[in-house]
Amino acid sequence: MKRAYEIIGAPFGFAANKSGSRTAPDYLRENGLNIKIRQRTNEFWGSDIEDFGNVEVDSQINELYKSEKTLEAVKLYCEKLNDCVYNSYVRGKTPIIIGGDHSISVGTVSAASRYLKETNSKSNLGLIWVDAHADLNNLENGNIHGKSVAISLGYVYQDMFKLSNLTDVIDTKNIMYIGIRDLMPNEYVTIQNKNISLYGMDKIDKSGIREVIKEIVSKLEETTDGIFLSFDIDACDGGVYRGCATPEVGGLTAREAIQIIDYVSQSKKFMGADIVEYSPEDDTNGNTNQLVIKLIDTLVGYRM
Ligand SMILES: [Mn+2]
Asked: Which residues bind Mn(2+) 1 per the record (predicted)?
């Protein structure tokens, strides 16, 4: 069956040390995305892609941030985003969410899990997390965008999140990390203790990205009911793609990133994706802009 895609902007950037990603959804629309969507939805390509618009940061969320209640701001925003993404599923769409910093994935991943739970009676969500970082920090201090997976698992801030539908939405055995190359000691310990699957750059160099992504998708297709992809742009080589808060040298090439998305998005169990952390103000040469447009286009229809 032909997929119907819905683009959702998530301009929330309060959980990072720099908030440049908040401008990404609108910037991308103006700089390549709208043109791309028009091309793909014309008579020739006939893709079904709609732009939902943004889930806005409202005045209440702004106020929380201003009064230094960043965690409350993240929670409130992610609850809003969760509802929006969940409703996208109800309408039969495949949501593609454009961040924003990586904390927005607390909203997107929980929405995919919530929809699975309602349609399958339980949630057994597979999560492919492409990132330079594991976002698994379970300490109370530090930037919140480095803790999204920890929040989704219920490993941090339980006082704040336990009564929401944002936490405890995924099982460690269903998480597949790709491209991680900057771990904190406590994240390393969690990955070891919980035996979480991690495909670092060494593995990609050794086996090639096609083998790696094939292995990941076939595992998740066997053991889960749906696959969500969370793609942090800092997974890509920070020596080339500088347009994010924390560029890390030695990451994925553009071709590797395209291959990952091309393969995952063709799975029958693919449930949508978020692309996060693009920061236009840090993208001085426009390289990262071009990459992000290519990645979104790969999600919604571009095929080699
Ligand atoms: Mn991240």
From this structure: 102, 131, 133, 135
Cα of 146 vs centre of ligand 1, distance in Å, is 6
Q: How far is the CA of 246 from the centre of ligand 1 (A)?
A: 9
pLDDT for 143-178, tens place per residue?
999 999 999 999 999 999 999 999 999 999 999 999
DSSP assignment string, 210-244? HHHHHHHHHHHHHH-SEEEEEEEGGGB-TTT---B
pLDDT at 98 over 90: yes
> What is the total count of domains within the chain?
1
CA of 235 relative to ligand 1 center, distance in Å: 8
Per the structure, the complete domain to which residue 68 belongs is given by 4-300
Task: Output the domain CATH number for residue 107.
Answer: 3.40.800.10
What are the two backbone dihedrals, phi and then psi, of residue 176, each rounded to the nearest 5 degrees?
-125, 115
